[in-house]
Specification:
By secondary structure, this protein is of the alpha/beta class. Helices cover about 35% and strands about 20% of the residues.
Length: about 290
């Protein structure tokens, strides 16, 4: 079966899907507006189904013998009280390793984000991926339900939980004390936010919302920022963010990937761009190795 890509969809459908994913329109709104682009026997519901994630394949299997993974809990008194996440490490690690906090999109800890954590473990990092939906019962196994549930999360408490997660990794027994963060979409926003409240060793936001300009001078963490060329919603905030980064002499790199959509690194949806994702991930791992090892 041929894999669908962004080029199989009208650009307006992709815009509608982005609005749907981020809660700007509901399911009914997507279906009613996408109907005009449903041609050749395709239905609006069919378009939505085709654009939605499929977790059939993974890059690193959960049972891969090269890693050891488990779900762990930590106290988070400033957040929801208990922080739960997926902790993955190389099975045969030698010496102390750097750690990377992995922050999911606005659907909680789904199989794709767990796969990302496993990939990092194979690159010789301790990876920890918390589930912001844990206080509400955890990732429900359905992306639409997860998105609806995520809208009910208390973001003040959740942000505190991610701060706790970073602090846990700074002190984790087999860690070397250095911590980076990588996040996607909502998680990209968290990866931009954490350096305004913590001194981390590296931060890599993928197409994430920028922090308030007034908070940017607090950033003392090296940043590697990945954005998509066709992501008008996120790129709208970039000029002000860049000006603030330059004014505060922040250490940052910014890449915009030509022709890509928001979510281009997520290989479970047609918005995935294989070439851009490969390049962005190579840059990400190299950036972490540069700043977290030693």
């Amino acid at each position: 079966m041929t894999r669908l890509t962004q080029h199989d969809f009208d650009p307006e459908v992709l815009k509608l899907f982005d609005q749907y994913v981020h809660g700007q329109i509901d399911r009914r709104g997507f279906l009613s507006q996408a109907g005009r682009y449903a041609v050749g026997g395709t239905t609006a519901a069919g378009l939505l189904g085709a654009l939605s994630p499929s977790f059939a394949a993974t890059v690193v299997a959960a049972t891969d013998p090269r890693i050891k993974a488990s779900y762990v809990e930590y106290p988070s008194p400033n957040g929801y009280g208990t922080l739960r996440g997926y902790l993955v490490q190389p099975a045969n690690a030698k010496g102390k390793l750097p750690a990377v906090l992995v922050v999911h999109e606005n659907r909680g800890l789904n199989p794709h984000i767990e796969d990302i954590a496993r990939r990092l473990a194979l690159d010789n990092f301790i990876a920890f991926a918390p589930d912001a939906l844990f206080p509400l019962g955890g990732y429900p196994g359905d992306e639409d339900k997860a998105r609806e549930l995520f809208a009910k999360v208390d973001q003040v408490k959740t942000r505190a939980d991610f701060v706790t997660a970073a602090e846990v990794l700074q002190k984790i027994p087999n860690g070397n004390g250095k911590v980076g963060v990588v996040g996607f979409c909502y998680g990209g926003g968290i990866a931009n936010y954490l350096p305004t409240v913590l001194k981390l060793d590296a931060a890599v936001p993928f197409y994430g919302a920028q922090p308030p300009v007034a908070e940017v001078p607090k950033i003392k963490t090296p940043l590697l920022i990945h954005d998509a060329e066709k992501d008008e919603r996120i790129l709208a905030g970039w000029p002000a963010y860049e000006a603030a980064l330059k004014a505060s002499k922040a250490d940052y790199q910014h890449y915009v990937y030509p022709g890509t959509q928001h979510g281009f690194n997520n290989d479970t949806t047609p918005r995935f761009d294989e070439a851009a994702a490969k390049l962005a991930w190579q840059r990400t791992v190299a950036f972490f190795k540069q700043h977290l090892h030693g």
